[in-house]
Amino acid sequence: MIKLACAYIGSVLIIAAALSIGPAQARTYDIDIVHSNIVFFIDHLGFSRVVGVARDFGGSFEFDPAKPEASSLDVTVKVESIATNNKQRDSDIQGADWFNASEFPDITFAGTEYMRTGEKTGKIVGDLTIAGITQSATLDVTFNREGENPWDNSQVVGFSAETTIKRSDFGLKTALGMIGDDVKLYIEIEGRGR
């Protein structure tokens, strides 16, 4: 009888402990710029595509793989950090005909809706602001992996994303017809858990 009572009490304690653990919780991550990239492609006279990168950006996001629809995301890109492998062009795009960086030094993206489309895929709809104009943009996102970084034991999560925007939607209309309107963006993000 005593053995049966002990077994019963042990079972209750194990169940109670399991229930107290509860579901996984969302974690806040900071973008690790050393292992993240924002790259864009834009047509040049139909001959080729100019490639550009953002070298200075940051932000944070909240993510729970069990409930991605409850995520949050805020990113800021410094316009002065945009580079296209040509000093003259990089200087030109900072000016009033393009990004007008002196008046609008930041590009921002704030997620507003998060949708799962597959086991490791989803969409993020958000407000993209360029040169003072805000438009809705949708990122097609792939969840790569979540786990521990073996170098420093930090918690890391990684995503790949892409989208296409029209620069004219943001008032950037210089040389349309010669320089493409569609801008293809590829984004690789690693976030480090707080």
UniProtKB/TrEMBL annotation:
Coiled-coil positions: none
Protein keywords: Signal
Domain of life, source organism: Bacteria
Entries under Pfam families matching the protein: YceI
Segment forming the signal sequence: 1-26
Ribonucleoprotein recorded as keyword: no
Domain Lipid/polyisoprenoid-binding YceI-like, chain residue ranges per copy: 28-192
Keyword Cytoplasm recorded: no
Protein name: Polyisoprenoid-binding protein YceI
Lineage: Bacteria, Pseudomonadati, Pseudomonadota, Alphaproteobacteria, Hyphomicrobiales
